[in-house]
Structure formats: C-alpha cells, structure tokens
Amino acid sequence: MKAVILAGGLGTRLRPLTYTVPKPLIPLVGKPLIVRMIESLPQSVDTVILAVSYMREALEDHFRVQPCGRKVIIVNEPSPMGTGGAIKNVAHHLDETFIAMNGDCISSLDLREMVKRHRECGGIGTIALWQVEDPSAFGVVQLDRNERIIDFQEKPKREEARSDLINAGYYVFEPEILDYIGKGQVSIEREVFPRVLGYGLFGHRFTGHWMDCGTRETFLAAQAKVLELESPPPPSQEGCCFLSPSLVRSANIRSATVGPNACIEAGAVIGEGAEVSGSLVMRGACLGPGCSVRGSIIGPNYKVGKDEKVEDSVLANR
Ligand code: GTP
Q: Which residue from 56, 83, 93, 191 has its CB within 8 A of the most atoms of ligand 1, so it is best to mutate?
C-alpha cells in the first residue's frame, strides 16, 4: 500500500524558524516530525510518497543520509499547489486504495483500523475525525446516522457549528478521487470534498490524542504529549537539575535547570544558571549564563544572551 504525506507547506506560522528549517524536519522529541509520521504508518505501507515543494532539497538531503526503512519517493511541486493539487501531482504513483495525510500532526489514530473501516464502508474516501470542544478554528464535518459525511463547514462560528467533529487531516482514498481534483492550486478540504459527497465519504472517529504541530503553542503541546508518552531517561550530566519529562541529546550543560517539557538537541550549549522549560532548543543553539527560556523554540545555532529572558517566542537565525 502507498501513503502520500503532504509536506510542502510554507509553515508561515512557525517563522522565522521555517525560513531555514522546513516544518517536517523540526525535531519533535528527538526525531523530525516527518519521521514520526512515517513511523505511524501501518506495516502494510511499503512506499511513502512525500509531496514537497518548499525547501525540497533539505528533505531530499535528510532521507539520502537517514533512510527510514521504507521506500520514500519525493515528488516536487514547482510551487505549492495546495492540499488537493499536491495529491493530484503524485497521481501517477497511485493506482489502488491509498492513505493521504497532512505532514504536521501526531495522533493515536490506528491507520490499519481506518483502512479496514474504509473498505467496509465502500466509499470513495474516509476521513479521520477528532472531537473538540470548540471547532471554530477547524474544518467541521457533519455525519448522518451511518457515519456518512453529509456536509462540511470551514471554521464556523462556535455557535453555528453543526457538529463537534473536525477533519483530523488523515484520509483513505480510492484512486477515483483523483478524477475530481482539478488542475493547479486546489484545496482538498474546501474544493474536492464537497464535490465528492455523493460518491460516499465516510467519517472515522478515534480517541486518544491528536495534535497538529503548526504553531508554536501546538508544537510545544505536542512535544509535551510525546515526552509524557515516551518519558526519555534523564541525562547523565553532572550539575544539571533535570525536571522530567525532558530530553537532552549530548548537549553541553553547566549547572542549569532543564525541564519540565524541555528538549535540548545535540550540540546545544546551556550556560551556567540558565533555566529552560516547556521549550525546544535546537542543534548548536547557545543559551547564555543566567538566561531563562520558557514556552519557546530556539532555532539551530541561535544565541540567547547572558541573563536574557525569552518567553513564548520562536527565535531563529535567518
Ligand atoms: P502555515 O503556512 O503555517 O499555515 O503552514 P502550512 O504551509 O504547513 O499549511 P497547513 O498547516 O495548512 O498545511 C497542512 C499540511 O499540508 C502540512 O503538512 C503542509 O506541509 C501541507 N501542505 C499545505 N499546503 C501544501 C502544498 O501546497 N503542497 C504540499 N505538498 N503540501 C502542502
């Protein structure tokens, strides 16, 4: 079976970090987001098609050096074609039931179960659905009694939302869906789904966790969730006060306080008396003595000054 991962967005909400690191390669608890997504695919998926555009070379370089155990085909779009256009652009690889997913979510969804459900329902597509309290920031999905999708609402006002189920960005499709995706820039959610309702689009609810990693807040919330689930072992760094759960990868730390919910990537330097919590410090970043970093993402090789206070920020070199 093949899976298409949409990994070509600009990631504007994570700028300035995404000027130099594409969102799929941002490390989420020690592994690039895209690698976590690939690992979540069922064993039956032998080929992963990465639909890329923005910073394609960085993704190609990554998979050249660090293969992921499955065949990875990287397909470029000359410019981002939208979620539908990106799937259409890889149509020549798709001739049987396939999985498609956004490249920036983590979840407990069992895709094997979802593929089974899709086959039982017999529609043109199945969309994973996640229940939320306030659906106003999402694509809302309305179902009939048989879990068949009958309508969509894009980011409705909270009081006007017709359900509390949102599109979680994971799909199983029959190849026929490709006939309904037009040429050029196309949104699968807004333009294609409403058009194919008559051919059977079904919802697949799941429980557990679901998080999109598109903003600083949601990325760091996803990091906290993965840290909670994986609880990495404490570092063997002398003089470091380490508050679990956190991850430290061969960094140089001097009498600093790290955690909870902090990830320090390899080669980072944390100065004496510094405090880091609820944050990601990427490779080679340097935190000056006495500084404090909370709720923030510090990009590769970025320097935070002595005694500087950083809160709720994304800081990166351009
Ligand atoms: P923002 O600019 O911050 O909204 O981020 P984004 O560009 O990633 O957009 P969004 O979060 O809406 O995208 C959801 C998923 O679809 C992400 O995994 C994107 O990489 C992917 N995606 C969005 N647009 C495109 C596109 O035009 N082409 C491809 N190949 N993937 C896309």
A: 83
**What are the structural domains, with CATH classification, of the chain?**
2-212 (3.90.550.10), 231-315 (2.160.10.10)
As beta bridge partners, residue 205 has 129
Q: For residue 16, what are its two tokens?
A: 């300035």
Residue positions annotated with a catalytic role:
155
For residue 79, which atom of ligand 1 is closest to its CA? 27
β-partners of residue 311 are 294
Question: Which residue, judged by its Cα, is nearest atom 13 of ligand 1?
Answer: 9
pTM of the model: 0.93
Residues in CB range of 146: below 8 A, 6 or more apart: none
Q: Is the peptide bond before 260 cis (omega within 30 degrees of 0)?
A: yes
Residue nearest to atom 12 of ligand 1 (CA): 9
In the reported structure, the alpha carbon of residue 260 is separated from the centroid of ligand 1 by a whole-number distance in angstroms of 30
Contact 258/243 with Cβ under 8 angstroms?
yes
Pairing verdict, β 297-298 and 280-281: parallel
Tell me how far CA of residue 232 lies from CA of 132, 168, 223, 228, 300, in angstroms.
29, 27, 12, 9, 22
From the alpha carbon of 52, which atom of ligand 1 is closest?
A: 30
Tokens of 172: 């199983």
Length of the chain: 318
Give me ligand 1 centre to Cα 6, in Å. Answer: 7
Buried-exposed string 39-67: b where 16+ CB fall within 10 A, e elsewhere: ebbeeebeebbbbbbbbbeebeebbeeee
Ligand 1-lining residues (CB < 6 angstroms) = 6-13, 23, 51-53, 77, 80-83, 86, 102-104, 214
Q: What number is the average pLDDT over the span 283-308? A: 97
* pLDDT bucket at 191, cuts 50 / 70 / 90: very high
Torsion angle of the four alpha carbons 9, 191, 208, 63, in this order, in degrees rounded to the nearest 10: -30
C-alpha gyration radius of the chain: 21
Give the pLDDT band (50/70/90) at residue 78. Answer: confident
